[in-house]
Amino acid sequence: MWLRKADFITGIMLAALGLAAFALSLKLGWDLSVVQRDGWYTAPGLVPAAAAIVLFLLGSALSFHAFQEGGAWKHEDFSRLKAAIADPASGRSALAALLLMVYVFGLLGRVHFILASFLFLVAFMFLFKATAWWKILSISAIVSTAIGIVFEHLARIPLP
Amino acid sequence: MKTLSHYIVITTLFIGLFLGGCDSEPNGRDAGEWPGRKTINVAVFASPGGSTDLANRTMANVMERELGATISVLNIPGAQGGSAANHVWNARRDGHTWFGMSEGALAMPVFGAHSTTSRDWHYFLICGTPGILSVPADSPYHTLEELIAAIRDRPNQIRMASAFPGTVWHEQYLVMSKAAGLQVRWISYPGSHPSQVAALSGEVDVVLTGLGEQVELLRSGHLRPLAVMETEPRRYEGIGELPPISGPLPELKDHFPLRQYIGFALPADTPAEILETIEGAFKRAMDSDEIRQFGEASHSELFGYSGEEASALFAERESRLTWLLYDEQLARHSPERYGIARP
Amino acid sequence: MEIVTFFKEVLALLTPMTLLIFAGATVLGILVGALPGLTATLAIALLTGVTYGLDTQAALIVLLGIYVGAIYGGSFTAIMLNIPGTASAAATAMDGYPLALKGEGGRAKGYATVGSLMGTIFGLIILMALAPWISRLALRFTAVEFSLLALFGILICGSITSQDWPIKGWIAGVLGILLSTVGIDPLHGYARFTFETPMLLTGIALVPAMIGVFGIPQIIRTMKTPDAKHVVIAESGRILPTWKDFKKLIPASLRSGAVGTSIGAIPGVGEDIASWGSYGVARKLSKHPEEFGKGSYEGVLAAETGNNAAIGGALIPLLTLAVPGSPPTAVLLGALWLHGIRPGPMLAVESPGFIYQIGAMLLVAACIMSAWGLLLTRVVAKALSIPRGIFMPIIAVLCVIGAYSLNLSLFDVWIMLGIGLIYYLLTEMKYPAAPLILGLILGPLLDENLRRALTVHDGSLLPFMTRPFALLFLLAIIISLGSRTSWWKRLRDYAFRRSG
């Protein structure tokens, strides 16, 4: 049931995305001199525009069918949704996502890759209570330096 | 405990195996002296396997010896060279990050790919291969004159393949069509090899790519060369003498030679003594056997230009290329915006 | 006569020293392939410089060994973790991971190994026997055929989903196509959807996107459940298929080999598309198509046979026309040049034995690769019995470095995580990940070639129907859409049919 309700909303969002992409692709180089000479069908906007229309149609179809199969939102659904968000499983996945975001958007580029990875590993394992603290520290240190060495010195990829 | 020991075992195994496959770190010099122990990275703006990549890899091998440093070549294609340029431009000015490029990089500012112009770089130009105009073996055109007559006869009908805008072959095509009024239907391909395949498969009538890429197909007779994109006739082993493109099209004499220049560059504000050290090593490298052999194998002319000489050459070329692209509405920005004067 | 030359070449390779180089090169290839973000192309490019000083034979062994190993290595992480190590292993994950969840990962790996071995051998036989003929045929592929091929592939998107309505597969595929158009247009150099942001000019690179859609949802999903149980049910027992099972699969693997080699031989189309093509054909012709996507050994075998068979295929245009058949062979061409070998039409005249030497090297590399594969399967299965709380963050670090290393760009890492987080929500709503990747691979192929075909043929659609290969693809597309009853109704039923 939740799936169809979600499908209903996503369908609308996808259709809107399709429309927006279509509007943008109408401005993509239809007036280039090369395109004027060779024909409108060579314009850079051709395939994006077509894909956007298809996305709009698919999104609308998805919404429509989800609605037919009980995808409409009723008043009491919102309170049930709140309960679902408060579920510990959602909390755990949100924590994992948050840790990833802090690591990628916050740490990388500001501190050296090895240190950033070490911090991320330690935080992740601690918060998910993976194992004893000394194991966490040693595993994090070994893994982050090992990955750093393998990439920086052996694969010759300069690290961020 | 058991899991930890597992992990340590696997990690060590991992490192050991990688160590086995790669060469060891060469010894650096004293800490104070450039280049020191730090690895030099050459960020090449094209995919691995292409001519810019190959020339830079060969050069890196020789320069490793000349500079006594580790040099590793990385490929950062994309955004018409902008990705690699950006990587190099944002690196510290310690001479350890080089930009592997060709004259195509001059189009970056007008394409909106990177805001630097030729004034911002110190160039080292290694080599370039001449452009060859060819037709498939079963083509009805046997001479350049026949082809030109056919193009004039049926404007916009003869199909010609070359690499995408910004490459030297596209530039040569543009000059040909503008200065000599040759109206062909130009078809864009992602590089020299796909352009040549298009000629072999009959998708296009004419192909314009470099000798280095075409030579095997010319020698085997799959492609028939009609002209070399120069102002003087050229003779190549196994192919014979080729007439210059400017023969029947004397208008082109004002614009040609338009050569390919492959090399590398450093930001011009890199400390002068570092640039001098690289200059010295570069000149020695250009005289080495490896580079000479590479020139022969890739059918390229060796240049060895750097410093003022290269900058003057590129500034002049930049002005011609960017305005050409702008006038053809292929460029997003006017060269004026970057202070590039009209030729 | 040729067979004698070939076996002489094989015998010449069986010295302890060369075998040692083979062993080192293939295992390095397997590791590179298994790590997300490190691709066969990158590994060959990296080793080109290192092998510069070696003699030509040793250098070729290293490069071909890496190539064969890396294409196979992607299947490890694809099967065990649902994170394909290379784009060419994305099709392997479709059935490999469901099998691993059932506790049959080891056997899936066994099938993948057998498939890769057979595929490589099939490819090298075709390479030696039919190279000139195949390369002539591959030249029939022009922009018209490429665009229809891409269109056909995109239609497959709807059929590779299995969890919910097939329309979700198409949505993912179309999203992939739209994402692929971000950046500089390859035809006219025109910037699309970049919003004046220089970083978007490069576009959405395939590898970071792939790591994102496969890796990130996997990490979050695994952490959702609290127990510290193992990621993959460790199992012992038989890895290799029994002779009886194997015999049944021979026709299927020959077919996959043929598909993989032919797709590999088409210039510009590589292992990535070969594995999907082979998977799609196997599914269409299988007696049990309903098992595909839920854990079909046939599916694993088809995908892995297909991508390794593409190696021999990709070498065909490389050696006969000096035209690389796939991205790794483009690098290989450069490496050959540096060693003074000029592939191309003259190669067969100037050094007639060379193609057999390559064939022999591929054969030995394939055998050693299989040995390593079987050996490593058990080690890897052991490594995966680490508790998820420790294992998943390590995978996350590998995802990050993998996304970064291809273009040395932090922006790619952001793209990886951004797409990954969005895709986590989409996978919760049962959208498949693979079609998005297929869309990203096929999008540029369609975009570039459709417009090129229309330019070449002056906007005429006639060549799409009159060229023999094009007609074949067009018929295939029409058949797969179905036109028996009202096609609209059929399309609707198809898009929303309930599966299982």
What can you tell me about this protein's structure?
- By secondary structure, chain A is an all-alpha fold.
- Chain A is built from 7 helices and no strands.
- Chain A has 2 domains: 2-85; 88-154, no CATH class.
- Helix content of chain A is 78%, strand content 0%.
- The two termini of chain A are 45 Å apart.
- Chain B has 2 domains: 38-129 and 260-338, D-Maltodextrin-Binding Protein, domain 2, CATH 3.40.190; 131-254, Periplasmic binding protein-like II (D-Maltodextrin-Binding Protein, domain 2).
- Chain B is of the alpha/beta class and 343 residues long.
- With 500 residues, chain C is mainly α.
- Chain C has one domain.
- Chain C is 72% helix and 1% strand.
- Chain C has 21 helices and 2 strands.
- The longest helix of chain C is centred in the N-terminal third of the chain and has 34 residues, at 105-138.
- Chain C starts with a helix and ends with a helix.
- The mean pLDDT of chain C is 84.
- The interface between B and C is large, with 71 and 69 residues.
On the 0-100 scale, what is the average pLDDT of chain A? 88
Strand runs of chain B, count: 13
Largest interface: B-C, 71 and 69 residues
Low-confidence spans of chain A = none
Question: Cα distance, first to last residue of chain A?
Answer: 45 Å
The CATH superfamily name of the largest domain in chain B is: Bordetella uptake gene, domain 1
**Helix segment tally of chain B:** 11
Globular, elongated, flat, extended or rod-shaped: what is the shape of chain B?
A: globular
- What is the number of domains of chain A? 2
The low-confidence parts of chain B are 1-31
Largest sheet of chain B: 6 strands, mixed
- The strand line-up of the biggest sheet of chain B is 2-1-3-12-4-13
Q: SSE order of chain B, as H and E?
A: HEHEHEHEEHEHEHEHEEEEHHEH
What is the overall silhouette of chain A?
Answer: flat
- Portion in strands of chain A: under 5%
Order of helices and strands of chain A: HHHHHHH
For the residues shown, what is the average pLDDT of chain B?
Answer: 87
* Largest sheet properties of chain A: none
Q: Give the DSSP E fraction of chain B (strand runs of 2 or more residues).
A: 15-25%
Q: Care to count the β-strands of chain A?
A: 0
